[in-house]
């Protein structure tokens, strides 16, 4: 928590509840995979305290609270044992678990950013570590269970509320540090930040508000010169008498005559009028007639067939 929240017995209790229900969430993921009780407990522990482990390792705060705070560790282990017993009931409480997960997201974001600032990090570092604290446990859980991490798979607002919560925590901390706000005001603003994170997360799921993906486009805009490219084929053109297949590739047929020296032009299977020029090395050069280049430019681009005696 921030300094204000850390000194509040009420929010210390809320933090233990957040650890407990995050552990239940991780345990449920292991139960759905039909793993044994030991795996369920370990997954619950990593989900509840994994974000704090990442944060403390980055800060050099060793040993991390995830292995040194007996209260947190026992709470996480207890969550795994409890969910192994009441998992059918927990599985039906989807919205309740969502709200509790969102509450943990907000509490851990404030916790991570505040602890980073206590170690005199920059504001940007504090935002990153607050976000890692909020999301890290879920990422470790999903990777441990060979799943796509929820932060990537879930297109609803998940990382966005965590980033906002971490950023606002840094702002409030700097205000308090500059004596612009009192201790009581800091406490109230920390509460507002946690509530804001919960509201953003729940609203995004309730109303199916998702993060947009890549822009959908149907046309490609590239310089015309890029559209003319050389493509090498190993096989022999089936309808070209001027070439024969050898172990080194396609070579011109000796004495192919005037017919073999002509630049064959074909249409593709779709009949789009693309001109194909065959070189003496057995390579094909595709050109787009829509480029409307001058005859001189076209003559320079098209490579004529060279016979085996080197004459054009």
Automatic annotation (TrEMBL):
Residues 235-312 are annotated as: Disordered. It is found in: Cell membrane. Keywords: Cell membrane, Membrane, Transmembrane, Transmembrane helix. The keyword tRNA processing does not apply. Its main location: membrane. It comes from the Bacteria. It is a multi-pass membrane protein. Residues 258-268, 285-302 have a biased composition (Basic and acidic residues). The chain crosses the membrane at residues 13-31, 38-58, 70-86, 93-110, 116-136, 157-175, 187-209. One of its GO terms (cellular component) is plasma membrane. Residues 274-283 have a biased composition (Polar residues). Residues 13-87, 99-173 form the Glycine transporter domain. The keyword Hydrolase does not apply. PANTHER family: INNER MEMBRANE PROTEIN (PTHR30506), UPF0126 INNER MEMBRANE PROTEIN YADS-RELATED (PTHR30506:SF3). Belongs to the UPF0126 family. This is Glycine transporter domain-containing protein.
